[in-house]
Amino acid sequence: MNETQITINGNSNLDSNYITWSPVPAQIQLVDTGGTTNILAVRLRNQNPSQGGQVVFFPPFPGPGPGDHGWDEIVLALPHDGTPVPFSIAGKFGKPSVADRDAIIEVVDASTGNVLSVTPLMVRIRKNANRLEDGERQRFLSALAMLNAASTGGVGGFADYANVHTDAGFQEAHGADGFLPWHRAFLLDLERELQAIDPSVSLPYWRFDEPAPNLFTRDFLGVPNSNGTLEFDASNPLRFLSPPIWREPSFDTAIEPARVMSEAATTQLGAVFASYRIMEGNPHGSAHTSFSGVISSIGTAATDPLFFLLHNNVDRLWAKWQWYLHRFDMTSADTYTFLGSAGDPGAARVGHNLRDTMWPWNQITGTGGWNDRPPTAPGGSLPPSPVVNFPSPTPIVGDMIDYQGILQPANRLGFDYDDVPFDFDLM
Fold first, then answer.
1. Cα 270–274–277 angle (5° rounding)?
2. Which strands sit side by side in the sheet containing 3-8, from one edge to the other?
3. How far apart are CA 42 and CA 31, in angstroms?
4. Strand 115-123 relative to strand 18-19: parallel, antiparallel, unpaired?
5. Rounded alpha-carbon distances, angstroms, from residue 314 to 181, 205, 261, 284, 399
6. 283: cis peptide before it, omega within 30°?
7. Do residues 378 and 160 touch, judged by C-beta distance below 8 A?
8. 7: which strand partners?
9. Any long-range contacts for 267-276 (C-beta under 8 Å, 24+ apart)?
């Protein structure tokens, strides 16, 4: 009996079997030839096309080109000596996973139909928090609660994020072009920490221009009592948040959106980055100030888990704008305004130029002056990922632009959104 083995992302360890809409390299080889000395034709396909995450296949990486959105199955010829045969794989847009490794690649002998191997993986995608299934919500909350518990010792954990997003770091993260890439790195940092706890977790987003009745509940992000302090169900892992979170909405969370600009209007803010980045005020700022409490102030906002779902939607809106207008070319000021480094002619404040390293991951501190770094740098370097090798532990602003690796496949950051496809037209 012939047997086959699939390797994804260059690693035979199952820890690397997590994909998004972005094509990634894979290979297949015979590991037991069954005595054959002939080339074996095999068919790769989804084991169950009617449920679980689904994948599409391409020729060898980078494989796809403009207009090529992948095939539901592919036939490959495997040498009998076990030489690996390359191909590419991606999640099928609109068919993400709902559970860990619920996407299964089945390899069959093309001539006999015999199943030679199965490879489980996950199409791990950032989703609308209001539409999460119970298991997805519970895994996210459990991982977040575990990270929060780890922070009580004062080293690492959820508390680091509140210590980073403070008034002292305002000029690094707000008020200029670096707002969007800095927060993309901030979200990626948290998501990778959560995935180190549970690799099936991805950050959900709060689409704040739509009602989200399933989000502001006792079994998810809490309901304020008469004092504005959040209350949770006894089964909600976030009930142990410390200190307790104060958050009071100025809108009816069950039936109304936040007081923000719509997604359609946000997309139309401008065709170049210098115009689009004013979304920092509305919808971003307006979403924060749709509440009283810690979420409404820069210095305390990141103590509330809602902060990360709010900013994940801000990042999704930027990602969708990039997709609409093909804004991934880092040599163009239409993609990002300041292309050089701090100190170059016409450059922005340090931390907001394409070639600048980003605080606090660079661990550079200063006196907190207008063109200097903050006096402390909590949190350490950017966590690694078993799925991608980018960016470095000390990322630069430009590392956050081509997040899908459209123009530079090796620069994938390892996340995607449920309603933002991979832009094959730019490959």
1. 75
2. 3-8, 24-32, 85-91, 55-58
3. 13
4. parallel
5. 11, 9, 12, 6, 18
6. yes
7. yes
8. 27
9. 267/317, 267/320, 267/321, 267/324, 271/325, 271/334, 272/333, 272/334, 272/337, 273/177, 273/327, 273/333, 273/334, 273/335, 273/336, 273/337, 274/177, 274/333, 274/337, 276/318, 276/321
What Cα–Cα distance (Å) separates residue 99 from each residue in 96, 104, 123, 137, 418? 9, 12, 9, 11, 15
Joined together, the tokens standing for residue 425 give: 């037209």
Which of 299, 89, 58 is CA-nearest to residue 174?
A: 299
Q: What rounded mean pLDDT belongs to the chain?
A: 93
Separation of CA 367 from chain center: 33
Residue-wise pLDDT for 235-271, tens only, equals 999 998 878 899 999 999 999 999 999 999 999 999 9
Instruction: Give me 30's structure tokens.
Output: 């015979």
Give me 133's structure tokens: 């299934």
Task: Please state the pTM of the whole predicted model.
Answer: 0.95
385 close to 195: Cβ distance less than 8 angstroms: yes
Q: Judging by DSSP bridges, how do beta strands 115-123 and 230-231 pair with one another?
A: unpaired
Place of tokens 């009816």: 252
Contact 232, 238 (CB under 8 A): yes
Cis check for the bond before 96: say yes or no (omega within 30 of 0).
Answer: no
Q: Say if CB 27 and CB 7 are below 8 A apart.
A: yes
81-110, pLDDT tens digit by residue?
Answer: 999 999 999 999 999 999 999 999 999 999
